Amino acid sequence: MTVRLNGEASKTVLLDVDGTLCANTPRLIEYVRQECGIELAREEITEWSFSIPGTDSDIGELLHRAIDERPEWFLLGMAPIEGATEAARWLHNQGHTIRIATHRPPESHPITAQWLEEHDIPYDEMIQEVPRNKGLLAGDLLIDDYHVNVANALAAGKAGGLFVQPYSDPSVCSSAVIAEDWSTMLSALGRKPQVAGEADAEGHQ
Fold it and tell me: What is the pTM of this model?
């Protein structure tokens, strides 16, 4: 199921954060290097149960440890994915409601809100308690980097957009919009190519 976001009807868009708005793996790789002395490549993280060589931990456990022990360093140090700010601004300018739907622990949400503000990413609501099944959330479209989340949204009758990451499997949600960048994602959702020098609804070029 797909949805067009350039029409008159306002939609509610559920936006993930990690791997969707921000590049989480480079910071995670840096944390693993500092804490474990292990060099990882982004392409090696093909699942969140990936075992770190020479340790008793998997990459998912270290992710949660980084958020628990060094939240400001870890979360505020992530860079936005190219085009993320522009994408959120376009959704906002089209009149859609943006709900942030992340599986980060609720106690880290103030830091996430700070990160969103620092990178000028507009949103209407940060959902405080996100269920494991994001398909249960109220909304018309989920944009996420994890195939299970998108598949659950599709099963619940929502539209879905999947950002391709080494750990995502597009075959699980083939009816969703599949994209490797925000430009492709927004084009598939109805954004027309912007003419050079043309300003958007808020005057940004």
Answer: 0.91
